[in-house]
Amino acid sequence: MSSLAIGWIVFTCVFGGAVLGALLRSILPDHHLNADSKDVLKLAMGLTGTMAALVLSLLIGSAKSAYDTRSNEVMQASANIMLLDRLLAHYGPETRDIRDTLRRGVGGTIDRIWSPPGSGSGQFEITGGTEVLLDRIGQLSPQTEAQRALQAQVRALTFSLGQTRWLLAGQHDDWALPMPFLAVLVFWLTIIFGAFGLFTRPNTTIAVVLFVCALSFASAIFLIVELSRPFGGFLQISSAPLQDALSQLGR
Questions:
Q1: φ and ψ of 124, to 5 deg
Q2: Cβ partners under 8 Å of residue 30, min gap 6
Q3: If pLDDT is split at 50, 70 and 90, which confidence band does 145 have?
Q4: Which of 12, 53, 89, 230 is the most exposed place for a label (fewest CB within 10 A)?
Q5: Terminal Cα-to-Cα distance of the chain (whole angstroms)
Q6: Angle (CA) 163 160 172, round 5°
């Protein structure tokens, strides 16, 4: 489900709670709306609002942390790709095919995820296959001590690159968005807005305020879902680090 669809569902539920509360106000007898009822409701809604704020902050913090981690991993992978290419270049001209394979893999990844803009597949691969690179590197026949040292460094760096690739690929779909948390949060917000509608005489000003507040909460949920999808959507991780790495490969 898209982030916009989730945001609109949240808005409908939250603002719908306020509308439902206003309808109940016109049905309930007056003694259900007396001062004692309002006092109890204020205490209950204060507690519910505190819990909702804690859950919302937890979701935002977790989503932002996951997004930043993935962005850093892309930057680290880009740096490793450039370093791997330079080590292969220092090894000798016999690594030209390996470097071409690396360059094609990086270019294919950029085309698959970031082209056209905003239509990311949500699937990440650093190269066309680190296993292929490892096999090709293992087939090299170093003739000097310097080449043997470079081959060992290249193999270790390719292992690291492969590990980063699998970390990103294993998280390619969505960050593990805790849907029960999200469902409970929306339920709490719906109750709170229902109480607003129940104990407030409806007018245009109140309707506009509740509309804007519901839209604000829906926007927060929208951002949480967007942050959980770093390789797709409106908050897609920038391809600049990999583009920079691609421009340096093969030189």
A1: -120, 130
A2: none
A3: very high
A4: 53
A5: 43
A6: 30
- What whole-number distance in Å separates Cα of residue 20 and Cα of residue 61? 32
Q: How many domains are contained in the chain?
A: 1
175 and 122 Cβ atoms separated by less than 8 Å: no
**Separation of alpha carbons 199 and 210, rounded Å:** 13
63: its two tokens: 């989503």
Residue 161 tokens, joined? 């690159």
Q: Please say whether the beta carbons of 91 and 109 come within 8 A.
A: no
Using pLDDT thresholds of 50, 70 and 90, give the confidence band for residue 117.
very low
Q: Identify whether the C-beta of residue 88 lies closer than 8 Å to the C-beta of residue 251.
A: no
Q: Report whether the peptide linkage leading into residue 178 is cis, meaning its omega lies within 30 degrees of zero.
A: no
Strands, E, within 26-100: which ranges?
none
pTM for the model stands at 0.78
> Could you tell me which residue, 116 or 204, shows the higher pLDDT?
204
Is the N-terminal amide bond of 116 cis, ω within 30° of 0? yes
| Domain assignment of residue 41, given as a range | 3-248
- Pure H helices in 92-239: 96-114, 130-138, 145-169, 179-198, 204-227
Please provide the average confidence, as pLDDT, over all residues in the chain.
Answer: 83
